[in-house]
Amino acid sequence: MLSRVLSSAVLGIDAYLVEVEADIGTQMFSFTVVGLPDSAVKESRERVESAIKNSGYVFPNKRITINMAPADIRKEGSAFDLPISIGTLAATEQVRAERLKELVILGELSLEGSLRPIRGALSIAVMVREKGLKGLVLPKENAREGAMVEGVAVHPVETLHQAIQFLNGDLDIPPFVVDKEDIFNQAAKYPVDFAEVKGQAHVKRALEVAAAGGHNILLIGPPGAGKTMLAKRLPTILPMMTFEEAIETTKIHSVAGILSSGEALVATRPFRSPHHTISDAGLIGGGAHPRPGEVSLAHNGVLFLDELPEFGKNVLEVMRQPLEDGKVTISRAAMALTYPASFMMAGAMNPCPCGFFGDQSHDCTCTPGQIQKYMGRISGPLLDRIDIHIEVPALKYKEISDKALGECSDKIRERVNRARKVQLARFQGRKHLYANAQMHPRDIRKYCEITEESESLLRTAMAKFGLSARAYDRILKVSRTIADLEGTEPIAPSHISEAIQYRSLDRNLWM
Amino acid sequence: MSERSEKDWGAVGEAAAAEHLEAKGYKILERNFRYGREGELDIVAEKDGTLVFVEVKMRRSDWFGSPEDSVTFGKRKQIARMARAYVSLKNRMDTCCRFDVVSVLWEKGKPAVKSHHEDAFRPPSQKF
Predict the structure, then answer these.
(1) What ipTM was reported for this prediction?
(2) Which domains does chain A have, with CATH numbers?
């Protein structure tokens, strides 16, 4: 007897349809799975047999062959336990076949027959809608996530027995319904806020400018000054995520398996802070079983590289594509996978190896040579990508003990939004250009015209501080953002001089 | 009693098991089936269209654990191999098969069938 059950798997962040066929012959017992199953799928056999028996059904003592089509794509993971069980039972007529034509079924089984959550439920629900299928049978922990897609009926199940009763029509499981708007609003709350940060007005301003124009930013300061704390709050002043952005980010997190149980939507901009010992695959994705890397997990959010000089040289190499194209392509012998990776980059570092160069209360114990070498580690291509450098000094006691709260993120975000609106209007109709940071030299010439006065100020500064041509473009971009924040079209000298402030590293202060 | 050799003990057990099976309505097809050097199938029987390969375990005492436990993984592989050979040879490829274990204990001077485990194990999968 032959049965066919629809299921799904994820490639990159999109799902494709998998047909699970079960053929039961009369020959001696064997259980074979074909269709390039990986180890987890091969182990299904044990879970399927135990789950079926412990749910009170008969596991046939016959030759069982399971095929997972398309047969030339590697199948991974334990989510096929449920469709394989249902297929086996359908082929022995313990489950009726009618509903199997319209429903996509997934779930990991425990030995006693209860269902465990899977990854990628959102991507799979999107595929179900695209294929015009009726609905999904999913473990109940994934139901909220799957239900976020319009037009797909999600039937949550807790045990194999329940799933069988549902498919046989003996148990009604109505589609799981969620209030999308409510979930979106609930999920869009940040756990941190700028109001919690004392003092550091200059740094907050620099972060505001960075957020307003999408500029990458580098925080330089002694240990304990609050660089990490400030960077963590950067997402809270970026424009709120749109529903589409939230869906895209949720897909990526779901596929990576980092959604918490029952979580339906990621609606706050992600903040990812990988340790500097991270591998290439961990950073940009890939590995033996391709998974999204930190750059993709930071998609639509912030990637924070703390202790920037400690990151290996090859980090710059692998980060080039995501920083340039906003996505990452991982090639394998059989195929190429593309993950989205469009993010804002924030870095942090000490001013010198001991950390206390320029600090008022600690002496710096580094030799000029040591400092040179330390600084040399972040030269070149990576620095090229960072438009704003800001020093983060250690706080004085007065500031730390001040009970008054700082300005809250909502207020700062209002100003950022206004500046962003200006940019959207400016770049309307342009592809891949929606914030000042993304401007190329030609765009800078076009949109960043400056007055004579500003020009001469810039010329003087460049001569005095020994700034390079690279710095020139960056200063113009940042001044454009500063002017947008103020709501003025022409770029004034005050905007230029503030932008010049943000080129500390170029000013060779450490020489 | 101790004059009997191991082979005789085995035969005694098998005879008792065969009798037990027939009483239950099984038709005995083979006893001590051998083919090549792979080993031996104690009893091949049939009931209700299912071929049953029975491994008989004879013990003088259950001091060393129950007889069924001694059907090790290696033994199961061997039985499965023989069973496949039987099925192929006798052209019964399309018949359902089952593997049973009958344990026989010697008590009060007589062999007694202590248990008959139907579907005691599934054939371990072939590696090819």
Answers:
(1) 0.78
(2) 2-178 (3.30.230.10), 187-424 (3.40.50.300)
